[in-house]
Every structure is written in structure tokens, then in C-alpha cells.
Amino acid sequence: MQSIDTTLKDVKILRPRVFEDARGFFMETFRDKDFRNQVADVSFVQDNHSSSGKGVLRGLHYQVRYPQGKLIRVIAGVVFDVAVDIRKSSPDFGCWTGTVLSAENKDMLWVPPGFAHGFYVMSDHAEFVYKCTQYYAPEHERVILWNDPAIGIDWPLSGRDRPLLSSKDESGVLLKDAGVFS
């Protein structure tokens, strides 16, 4: 698996080796020893799967206690995936990086603990799967507003002024008002 740097030091794009022939393809999506050596020395405790339609935006989510690292991939469709550094001590505090993840490109994104995460569905439908380093703790989940001008994410909205949001994501707070990491 190839590890590719992003504009944020600790966020990585992972590109698996894909073996294709007339029957289809095969790829390893995760190998613990290689991940620990190349990316981060962490353990994963939970796998999640979400399904969303075109124009849905989920995020920017994080947990103030039990922060989660996430290894993300898309198994159907196309999403624009974003990580925002919310570690106050980081030189990249408040900066974001984004990449297109799709079933076709098979890229994955590593979002370490200390980052907020979100994604926007660009295709008619997307299936999004990810591994987490901590269990989901809804009482500690927080949401930063997807369109916070201080962060300035350039979401590739498809002909809309606003994406489809949950009520939780609609009521996100600005980064300046958010509980962040030291």
C-alpha cells in the first residue's frame, strides 16, 4: 500500500495495490503491521458503514473525549472527504485538506485523532465505510459548522447553495466556539 502525504502532515491518502483481470479485482484494504509501520501505530476497535444520496453532507464531526482516528474508504459512488486540524497546538490548526474517494479510485484516507471529519456525496449514491480507533460516544460528539468561513472548505456542491444536512449538522458551531484539542 502506498502512503501519500496531504497538505496536513498527519493526514494520509492510502492507495492499495489493485490486481485486476477479466474476472474483476482483488486488493488488501488493511494490513495491521504495514499500517502501524507506514502510517500510525494505532488499534482499530469499530467498523462503520453509512449510505447516503447525492448532495448529502455529513460533518464536521469529532469527539471531545475518546477522539477517533478514522481509516475511510468508499465502496460505491464518489465523495469529497475532508479533515480539519482542530489541535490548538498544531501549526495547521483550523486548516483543512480534502480528497475525492471513490469505488473506482479505491483510495483511502487516514484521519487521525484530533481532527474533525466530514464528507459530501458527489454521486447519485455512496457507500462509505471506515474503521475507528475509539468507540462511538455520542455524549462526547461535537459538530463544527460545515461552512465556517474561518476554515473555508471549498466543497464541490453540485448546483446547490446548500447540501442536505441532518439537524445535528445544521446546528454545528463555528470553530472559534468549538471545544478543541490542546
The helix/strand class is: mainly beta
Low-confidence stretches: none
What coarse outline follows from CA principal-axis ratios?
globular
**What series of H and E elements makes up the topology?**
EEEEHEEEEEEEEEH
CATH topology: Jelly Rolls
Spell out the CATH superfamily. Jelly Rolls
Q: In DSSP terms, counting alpha (H) and pi (I) runs of 4 or more, how many helices?
A: 2
End-to-end Cα distance? 32 Å
Amount of beta strand: 35-45%
Count all strands and give the number. Answer: 13
Sequence-ordered SSE layout with sheet pairings:
Blueprint: E1 2-5, E2 12-15, E3 18-21, E4 24-27, H1 32-38, E5 46-53, E6 57-63, E7 70-76, E8 78-85, E9 96-102, E10 108-111, E11 115-121, E12 125-132, E13 141-143, H2 167-170
Structure report:
There is one protein chain. This protein is mainly β. It has one domain (2-177): Jelly Rolls (Sandwich), CATH 2.60.120.10. Helices cover 6% and strands 41% of the residues. It has helices at residues 32-38, 167-170, and strands spanning 2-5, 12-15, 18-21, 24-27, 46-53, 57-63, 70-76, 78-85, 96-102, 108-111, 115-121, 125-132, 141-143. The strands form three sheets. A six-stranded antiparallel beta sheet has the order 1-2-10-7-12-5, with no helix packed on it. It starts with a strand and ends in a 12-residue tail after the last helix.
